[in-house]
Amino acid sequence: MHRKLFAATFLSTLVLSAPALAAAGGGDDASNDAVRQCESGEVWDRGKNDCVPADQQSLNDDALFENGRALAYLGRFEEAMTVLGMIKEQDRPDVLNYLGYATRNAGDLQAGIAHYRRAIALDPDYTLARSYMGQALLLDGDRDGAIAQLDAIEERCGRDCRGYTELAEAIVAATHDQPWRY
Predict the structure, then answer these.
(1) Are 48 and 98 found together in one domain?
(2) Helices 77-85 and 61-73: crossing angle, nearest 10°?
(3) Across the chain, what does the average pLDDT equal?
(4) Domain with 100 in it: what CATH number?
(5) Confidence of residue 29 (pLDDT cuts 50, 70, 90)
(6) I need a labelling partner for 42 at 20 to 30 A (CA). Which of 24, 35, 75, 146 fits?
(7) What gap in Å lies between CA 99 and CA 114, rounded to an integer?
(8) End-to-end alpha carbon distance in the chain
């Protein structure tokens, strides 16, 4: 009963605020703008303030991560997976999360979900990974699984954090058969 009442109240409130939530978006705009300049096979090198070949050895894991995340947010999913795959420390929750994001958006939903599960196993409090996993579960037809992730996010950061608002918006849109994508 409590869950149904909450869901009805929550969904009606969220439908009214959906336009504001759509502005939440993702990514670092400065990183996205820099990486946007780079050709396929290139990444942004802050030190050189220029695009360099992605396989250049001078880039550390953090630089590769920043580029991989930006490529994913720019919709260059295959390139993002390649760059993120170059990171030496693959068991970082943030790396796994964006591998999941790029992989599911490139069309391999199950592999994306597997990356999210690994990220969450390493850091159960990583709410953005939970949000993206919830969105993937929605795409897979598992609305209950998505709501379970929403509940877990709410326990960790409340309703005002990015992960909660993005997943909540996706659940509302999916419930009303409207398009959504993060």
Answers:
(1) no
(2) 170
(3) 84
(4) 1.25.40.10
(5) low
(6) 24
(7) 10
(8) 31
CA 43 from centre of chain: 20
Whether the Cβ atoms of residue 45 and residue 52 lie closer than 8 Å to each other: yes
Nearest residue to 115 (alpha-carbon basis) of 95, 135, 134: 95
pLDDT in tens, 111-133: 999 999 999 999 999 999 999 99
Please identify, among 55, 71, 89, the residue that sits at the C-terminal boundary of a domain: 89
Q: Which domain holds residue 79?
A: 25-89
pTM of the model: 0.80
Dihedral pair phi/psi, residue 45, rounded to 5°: -110, 110
Q: By CB neighbour count within 10 A (0-12 exposed, 13-18 middle, 19+ buried), where does 18 fall?
A: middle
Q: Tokens 């780079």 appear where?
A: 38
Tokens (6 digits) for 100: 């999941």
Q: In this structure, what token pair is assigned to residue 117?
A: 């599960």
